[in-house]
Amino acid sequence: MLRSGVMVVLMALTLPVADGANASSVRLLDGPHESLQARVDLIQQARQTIDLSYYAIDTDEVPVALLELLRQATLRGVRVRILVDGLKSRLPAKFEQYLSSYGIQLRVYHPPQQGHPRWLNRRLHSKLMVVDSCNAIIGSSNLENEHFGLKQERGFVDCDAIIFGEIAQQTQVYFDWLWATPDVQPAPAKDSLGLDVLSYRPFGRSDWKNAWRDADGPADYQRLLNQALQRVVCECGVGLNPQCDWMAEALHGINIQLLHDCSSDKSEHHVKHRIIQMMDRAKQSMLIESPYPAFDRSIRTAISRARNRGVCVTILTNSLETTDQLNVYAAYQNQKRGLLREGVQLREFVGRDTLHAKTMLIDDCCWMLGSYNFDARSNHLNLELCIVSNDPAGAAWLRSNLQTRLAQSTPVPARNWILSVGQDATASKRARLMMKRSVIELYRGLL
């Protein structure tokens, strides 16, 4: 009975926000520097609470610098809670204990442990930071260097937004609900086989990674926290204590809805149904931006229905050269001919970085951004979190934001659908793609 009541409340949170005092504000963050600076500013300006829910966090300089700012926030009396996916946390156990000594609460979603085999394939994919229940950052960025411009080779191109008001309060309710579910537990020191999964973290070979593997004790961890913050300030150009007013250039008084799953087992498929409803309402144009368009049947048929209505459909995704998930690209490659035959315009991202933004723009009015990938995992397995709106001003801002990424893409010619874009991809990558295409349909539902 209690669970049913909670579900009703959470479902109500996805209804349109009323006009007037309860309307929300939103500001799209322009690039990795602004996205990082906004997070730094909100943490330093926090007075009561900071809650984070992320798919991935590791011991790169950027996330460790943010962890140092979170540690400093606890010294001001701010309550800090961090929730991360159980398979994507790269924080050593002793380091977690050090952070906990300052009052930082750390939990994981579906940690690997005996007795829950179904948990292994159900992941927490949201990317959210809520501050004082009134400000939040949502989007596609994970807490890793590659998402914030501090990279060694290839980086990720994301789309984040900072939100204020009623919509931020809704994200707080969502986080509180998720934090209290049985799916969220303290990080286990050992997995179901008795192997210390944390002993292999962090991964990689560098002086920084080696320093983390050698660290053993509070003094070592605090030294690494300080070094990370110094590097981020110097190399990323991040300012500390700038007192920036992020609301000054935001769009105010618009209706924004929080789109999320209403049960941790995704039995209601709420996100999928809502996305398809948005697609089915398209009348003129629909632009889907997804780094991993391994469309399942429901999304694929929604695209076909849109084309049958005469809707101009454009899909922006990675090329063979830029993709970091070859299995997903193989699944998309198998659908490419059918999409082109229906008149769908395909554009593939080119360059040194990997497209990671997840957005949708319909009729220059309805829009969505967040963690949703338009694939089977997003529809049936992973917990996703997005914001959606029917506000034309927000849609215009998103289109302007999208233009930068569209300018870095190349159209796929309808007559040449095999390897039309990404000709700079290595021969081995091409060969692996052809092999994967022959078997990928056997497990498309797990991509």
From TrEMBL:
<feature type="signal peptide">
    <location>
        <begin position="1"/>
        <end position="23"/>
    </location>
</feature>
<keyword id="KW-0732">Signal</keyword>
<dbReference type="GO" id="GO:0032049">
    <property type="term" value="P:cardiolipin biosynthetic process"/>
</dbReference>
<dbReference type="GO" id="GO:0030572">
    <property type="term" value="F:phosphatidyltransferase activity"/>
</dbReference>
<keyword id="KW-0808">Transferase</keyword>
<feature type="domain" description="PLD phosphodiesterase">
    <location>
        <begin position="120"/>
        <end position="147"/>
    </location>
</feature>
<dbReference type="InterPro" id="IPR025202">
    <property type="entry name" value="PLD-like_dom"/>
</dbReference>
<feature type="domain" description="PLD phosphodiesterase">
    <location>
        <begin position="351"/>
        <end position="378"/>
    </location>
</feature>
<dbReference type="Pfam" id="PF13091">
    <property type="entry name" value="PLDc_2"/>
</dbReference>
<protein>
    <submittedName>
        <fullName>Major cardiolipin synthase ClsA</fullName>
        <ecNumber>2.7.8.-</ecNumber>
    </submittedName>
</protein>
<dbReference type="InterPro" id="IPR001736">
    <property type="entry name" value="PLipase_D/transphosphatidylase"/>
</dbReference>
